[in-house]
Amino acid sequence: MLVIYQSETGYAERYARWAAARMNVDCFSVSDASWRKGEEAVFFGSVRADKIRGLKKARRRFRIQATVAVGICPYSEGLCERLKKANGYDGILFAVQGGVDRNKLGWMQRRLLDAVSASLKSRGDEDLAQIVREGGDLSSENQLLNFMVWWQAWSIQHGAAPTPKEKKTSASVRNHGAEET
Ligand SMILES: Cc1cc2nc3c(=O)[nH]c(=O)nc-3n(C[C@H](O)[C@H](O)[C@H](O)COP(=O)(O)O)c2cc1C
Fold it and tell me: How far is the CA of 131 from the centre of ligand 1 (A)?
């Protein structure tokens, strides 16, 4: 299993690295991982106008077992259904909140965010509207809880085949044991 991500301002990457550390598997951006093509992977991608960036490419290159959408909207069943529809994706989907770093965005993207902020405000979500307008970080490792529960079940079901990292670890444990005797 691999963790693959596509991230524009760093939030999807942050979640991907948190998850990979807990899963003890390798983590790559979708464009750096072509040498691992064909492997089973979970994908983390940021949301732009309901599109999960990089998901199509990741699905062409890897056997995607689950996807985590990193956006600004809080998780809801309705959000996941909308994202699945907008991305033509019917697999397992989780949604977590990232953040907005306006300094890393171009003029056009900042203007688009202003429009998103105005629409959130008109729907009565003033707190989120302010974060989108001024920037802010809503990411937290705790939001990966549902994903980690899924991963535990997946690894049990699939016999938790050792990953390259785990193989390396058990080899070094063996070597260490040899030194001691
Ligand atoms: C132009 C633009 C459009 C966005 N559209 C959405 C959206 O439709 N839904 C959403 O939840 N978040 C949306 N966001 C928020 C981003 O998904 C959020 O900032 C995310 O944390 C970015 O992740 P990244 O740093 O990995 O790119 C949008 C952000 C920008 C800049």
Answer: 12
